[in-house]
Amino acid sequence: MGTPVNLTAGSQVRRLLERYGVRPSRRLGQHFLVDANVVRQVVEAAGVEPRDWVLEVGPGLGALTQALLARAAGVVAVEVDRRLVRALEESLGRSPGLVLVQGDALRVDLAAVMSRGGPQWKAVASPPYYLVGPLLARLLQEGRALSRLVLVVQREVAERVVAGPGSSAYGVLSVLVAYHARARVVARVSPACFYPPPAVDSAVVRLDRRPAGEIPAAEAPLLRVVRAAFGQRRKTLLSALAGARELGMGREGAARALEAAGIDGRRRGETLGLEEFCRLSEAAAALGKTGPGGV
């Protein structure tokens, strides 16, 4: 067991990586957050309290983990790289309240992982960038106990997360996020805040989960309609919905659903807000036209 180190000091970070034979992997998206000011901004945006348990994905060498442990009841950190798990045990000195889970965050049993902490949860992380889209979807859809998510992500992904109708960044992820949470960008982050620096700018996004039942539409059929609407962005809604096999609507069914929802079929998917998508989904469901199965 080692003495806790300053994980925002570049020299100590490099020394720790060398000791465990870790060369940051581009394939694994290993860019370690090493800026103390950004770490502080992330923790403050999360509003971590002494009774909170925090789920962290991709802790790396633990700069953010270290700051979270100083405020939270405990941190469950999920790391796929076994070498980094060993390095974390040294860098954090086997801190009380720290639970390390070696595994893929897209495959681990979230319920089992979170059963290792208390009832009050937040997700706070600087995850590998290749993981952000599917990870965010999983945390929102399966991590119902998470009241708030604060993540460091690529700037372009942050723009998609908070985008509204009419924006070029607006898409399926934007609607999925809006269905589950209210999102905003908290801060911009320079590549120089990471080791090694990524080739893109980053941002801190905060998502506050909506109260249960605030959005009445069922998620699975809603997302089928949303995916169909964005599947061919240049097409009108009528054409996009009519041509989506997973909906099984056909042109007549699409026209009837759009009319029932009070939406002009000549519009395009990127012009619809969450409320309109919900109306359209419910109208399609009432006509039995959203197809079988899940999302």
Largest sheet entry: 7 strands, mixed
Mean pLDDT: 91
| Shape label | elongated
In N-to-C order, the SSE pattern is: HEHEHEHEHEHEHHEEEHHHH
Strand content: 15-25%
For the terminal residues, how far apart are their CA atoms? 46 Å
CATH class of the largest domain equals Alpha Beta
Q: Assign the CATH topology of the largest domain.
A: Rossmann fold
The whole-angstrom Rg is 21 Å
Question: How is the topology of this model organized?
Answer:
Blueprint: H1 10-19, E1 32-33, H2 36-46, E2 53-57, H3 63-69, E3 74-79, H4 82-91, E4 98-102, H5 110-114, E5 121-125, H6 132-142, E6 146-154, H7 155-162, H8 172-180, E7 181-189, E8 194-195, E9 202-209, H9 219-231, H10 237-242, H11 250-261, H12 274-286
Parallel strand pairs: 2-3, 2-5, 3-4, 5-6
Antiparallel strand pairs: 1-8, 6-9, 7-9
Structure in words:
It contains twelve helices and nine strands. It has 295 residues and is of the alpha/beta class. The protein folds into two domains: 10-209, Rossmann fold; 219-286, Helicase, Ruva Protein, domain 3, CATH 1.10.8. The radius of gyration is 21 Å and the shape is elongated.
